[in-house]
Q: What sequence folds into this?
């Protein structure tokens, strides 16, 4: 392992002489680099689109064959994970299902066999526990001799504003499942995936780039996952193991329908679970880097870049019952008074 930098000999206020030309370069080129990158952007987009299109025409274009491959799926006892298992079963895979609820896993395994899986086994696993993740990967390899695809899907969420969390262990639990619960299985499966030129599919979330109130740790974990797997892709392992990151918006599942109220507006559009799973598996088969379901959430990326404040407004109004920003609040208070403004915006949360 390369050294971890923790012992600096000089302070950043007084950098050594050999760094000064580079600092000067950064200062003088700040505008030039920005302009060049800006002008290059449309060209780069066109070039990359054309490259992708040409590649898609090549007769040897890589498409992953799922039949007879070994697919390990975490969080397979319900929701998106269950539907992903059924999708892989439809395509004739051997599936290894993992989650904490054994009775649910048994039912999903039976359904997978009915849908055409070559085999379906399951193991009770808590992905927040390192030893459980190691056992899961060993179990898959002992049972089938190999792993071709690892689907990191297990996830959990809590609905609370940061200041409402009672203590540190409470929010650590979320990261243990939503972040480390992806990393541990990946760590143990990596050597097997390297051998089979396998694939990692990650159920991340659009929450990785769209802020959503009362979900700070969930959002942070998903953002970390997105960066973690994007980084893995450009490390040497990325040459042998392909990575598809799924970024769902709201999809029907226990997470979105059985959670505490006040989390999602009742009128908010939600995608069917099996449709989301079908699109994710199709993208994985085509070895796409990302798949956003539903697709329209992609526009949030543009808002995030060019008008981030507009992403804050709807959740403030519809979930928190607050005016979208300070200026509108002041204006409303001038026209209606403080109490009426409060009452007016509280009305927006009636359908939450
Ligand atoms: N539904 C959405 O709108 C949406 C949107 C974006 C992203 N996602 C992501 O999609 C993934 C699946 O969620 P879902 O919507 O399908 O919700 P879900 O139905 O609640 O499924 C969550 C799955 O994760 C498992 N799980 C939770 N904690 C676990 C743990 N400690 N160890 C092992 N398994 C655990 C659950 O099984 P057990 O309880 O049996 O352990 C369950 O199978 C999650 O990563 C979620 O963040 C969902």
A:
């Amino acid at each position: 392992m390369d050294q971890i930098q923790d012992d600096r000999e000089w302070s950043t206020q007084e950098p050594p002489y050999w760094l000064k030309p580079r600092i000067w370069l950064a200062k003088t080129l700040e505008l030039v680099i920005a302009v060049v990158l800006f002008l290059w952007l449309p060209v780069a987009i066109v070039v990359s689109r054309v490259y992708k299109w040409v590649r898609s025409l090549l007769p040897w274009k890589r498409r992953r064959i799922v039949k007879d491959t070994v697919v390990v799926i975490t969080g397979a006892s319900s929701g998106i994970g269950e539907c992903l298992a059924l999708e892989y079963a439809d395509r004739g895979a051997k599936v290894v299902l993992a989650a904490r609820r054994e009775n649910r896993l048994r039912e999903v395994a039976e359904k997978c066999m009915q849908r055409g899986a070559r085999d379906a086994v399951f193991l009770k696993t808590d992905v927040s526990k390192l030893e459980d993740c190691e056992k899961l990967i060993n179990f898959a390899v002992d049972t089938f001799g190999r792993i071709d695809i690892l689907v990191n899907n297990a996830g959990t969420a809590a609905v609370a504003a940061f200041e409402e969390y009672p203590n540190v262990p409470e929010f650590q639990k979320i990261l243990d499942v939503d972040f480390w619960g992806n990393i541990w299985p990946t760590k143990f499966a990596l050597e097997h995936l390297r051998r089979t030129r396998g694939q990692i599919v990650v159920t991340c979330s659009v929450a990785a780039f769209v802020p959503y109130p009362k979900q700070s740790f969930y959002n942070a974990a998903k953002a970390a996952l997105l960066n973690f797997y994007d980084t893995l892709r450009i490390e040497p392992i990325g040459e042998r193991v392909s990575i598809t990151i799924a970024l769902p918006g709201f999809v029907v599942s226990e997470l979105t329908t059985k959670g505490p109220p006040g989390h999602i507006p009742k009128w908010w559009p939600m995608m069917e679970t099996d449709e989301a799973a079908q699109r994710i598996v199709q993208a994985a088969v085509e070895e796409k880097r990302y798949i956003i379901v539903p697709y329209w959430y992609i526009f949030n990326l543009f808002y995030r870049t060019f008008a981030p404040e507009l992403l804050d407004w709807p959740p403030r109004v519809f979930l928190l019952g607050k005016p979208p920003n300070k200026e509108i609040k002041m204006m409303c208070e001038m026209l209606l008074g403080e109490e009426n403004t409060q009452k007016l915006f509280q009305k927006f949360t009636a359908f939450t």
Remarks:
- DSSP finds twelve helices and seven strands in the chain.
- Strands lie at 70-74, 94-99, 119-124, 149-152, 199-203, 242-248, 290-293.
- The domain at 70-301 is CATH 3.40.50.720 (Rossmann fold).
